[in-house]
Amino acid sequence: MSEAKAKRKRLVYVPEDLLADVTEAARKNSESLSMFVEETLKQALNVNHLGYSREQATETLQVMHAHRILGGAFVPLDVLNYLTTKAYETEKEKLLDVWYESGKWHGKYIKEKFEDPVQALKSFLQATRWDLSEVEVRQDESTVKLRCVSTVLTTEATELLSKFVEGAMHSIDYKTEKSDTLKGMIVFEFKR
């Protein structure tokens, strides 16, 4: 491909109010409008090549931002399992209470920050719990069915995560209708 052809530009129509916001963002980044738009489009393509929609990428970034604000940390799974098992042996009830309270705190924040807190919780679990191979949420007007599956969760970690999820959902104004927890699987039904 010739260099002249590679540098050709195309006119794209953009709503005026969006253009004003983009112009302001470019100015804040000390970039020309052209450079900002070009780089933003390249990043959108990178997201697409990773298999994410723009909406999924934005949601994941929002969740990771919330995770950081809420004091979350990434810990290698074998370290987390070791510490959890040790603490579980001597302080099971206290540990369960701590996870439940942490879930309540996270749920309260998610409820205040996100338009759809249940879907935000699902995204939060998917983005921050790499040990979960599946997080499924089905909801209607008053009921939420939530299922988490993992082939690597220990019995202790499953029970603790279950308490976290329950605390979060209680803060989002749902009550536990049914719960079933077994190693590597958590199944809940919540009602408003």
Q: Could you characterize the architecture of this molecule?
A:
The structure is a single chain. This protein has seven helices and four strands; from the N terminus they run H-H-H-H-H-H-E-E-H-E-E. Helix content is 60%, strand content 15%. The protein starts with a helix and ends with a strand. With 192 residues, it is of the alpha+beta class. Strand 1 (134-139) and strand 2 (143-149) form a beta hairpin. The model has no long low-confidence stretch (mean pLDDT 90). A four-stranded antiparallel beta sheet has the order 1-2-4-3, covered by helices on one side. It has helices at residues 3-6, 16-28, 33-49, 54-69, 77-113, 117-128, 155-171, and strands at 134-139, 143-149, 175-182, 185-191.
Count of helices?
7
Question: What does the largest sheet look like?
Answer: 4 strands, antiparallel
CATH fold type of the largest domain: Muramoyl-pentapeptide Carboxypeptidase, domain 2
CATH class of the largest domain: Alpha Beta
Measured on Cα atoms, how large is the radius of gyration?
21 Å
Overall number of structural domains:
2
Oligomer: single chain
| Helical residue percent band | 55-70%
Return the average pLDDT rounded to an integer: 90
Shape: elongated
Order of strands in the sheet with the most strands? 1-2-4-3
Which structural class do you get from the secondary structure elements? alpha+beta
Order of helices and strands: HHHHHHEEHEE
Architecture (CATH level 2) name of the largest domain: 2-Layer Sandwich
Termini gap? 60 Å
Strand content: 5-15%
Low-pLDDT runs of 5+ residues are: none
Number of strands: 4
